[in-house]
Design goal:
single chain, alpha+beta, tt1808, chain A, 2 domains, six-stranded mixed beta sheet, two-stranded antiparallel ribbon, 7 helices, 16 strands, 26% helix
Length: 239
């Protein structure tokens, strides 16, 4: 599989954009996933505008690519501003902290509402895949549609190489969607940054908690979250 680099957002952040083979592109035609005027240029689907501009993928087209088997539903990719981009591969530490974080949340609110690395629909051209999602009860029980941003009480990202993207781009997306709580678990410092009170597209209350600190989470019904429990032995390794 091939990737190229693309800048997204303001200020621009660099992502790896997914490219397509000619076979995959031709398979899109009969399924009317892309318009007839679309072309494939060096692995990138374009809209034949004359300037080589990449096609802006919609949520519906993204879902159709998955349904047709052109994209794997478990592929580590996201839809960001109409671009299909790669989520950097996770290492063992990332996986352990993600599982530990999800386990703590499940222990506080129960199993049914917690999702790990599942797609979350934001708008017509964006579908992100937070590391951990806590859904509202009614959304967790609704299997008739994929969950959307407004169904989430809490999202969390475990950040290593993605820290800048999680701090800058994703915090804006989550705030604009009025997700009540957003956590960033920073693997580099073993700290946890909590974003609260989304207003006007930004979180008004942002605080970073060190390894020896804790706080009460409203999304978890007042449950006391210990940062040291999230990172486990990783804390000792950093300190």
């Amino acid at each position: 599989m091939r990737w190229d680099r693309v800048a997204i957002g303001e200020p621009p952040l660099w992502f790896e954009r997914r490219q397509f083979t000619s076979d995959a592109f031709y398979a899109m035609g009969p399924l009317t996933i892309v318009p007839e005027c679309a072309e494939l240029f060096d692995g990138v689907v374009t809209d034949k505008t004359g300037d080589g501009r990449a096609h802006c993928w919609t949520h519906e087209q993204y879902a159709a690519l998955v349904e047709a088997g052109i994209l794997d539903q478990d592929e580590r990719i996201e839809l960001v501003e109409g671009e299909i981009v790669r989520i950097p591969g996770e290492d063992e530490c990332h996986g352990q902290v993600t599982e530990r974080l999800a386990g703590i949340i499940r222990g506080a609110v129960g199993e049914d509402s917690v999702r790990i690395a599942r797609p979350l629909w934001f708008n017509r051209v964006e579908q992100l895949r937070p590391d951990v999602i806590l859904l509202r009860d009614e959304a967790a029980r609704d299997h008739s549609r994929p969950p959307a941003a407004w169904d989430a009480l809490l999202v969390a990202e475990v950040s290593g190489t993605t820290l800048e993207i999680d701090r800058e781009l994703k915090s804006l997306r989550y705030a604009r969607s009025a997700i009540p709580e957003y956590w960033i678990a920073d693997l580099g410092t073993c700290s946890l940054t909590v974003h609260l009170d989304p207003v006007g597209g930004n979180y008004r209350n942002v605080r970073t908690y060190a390894a020896d600190e804790a706080w009460c989470s409203s999304a978890l019904g007042g449950y006391t979250m210990s940062v040291e429990r999230v990172f486990g032995r990783t804390v000792a390794e950093v300190s």
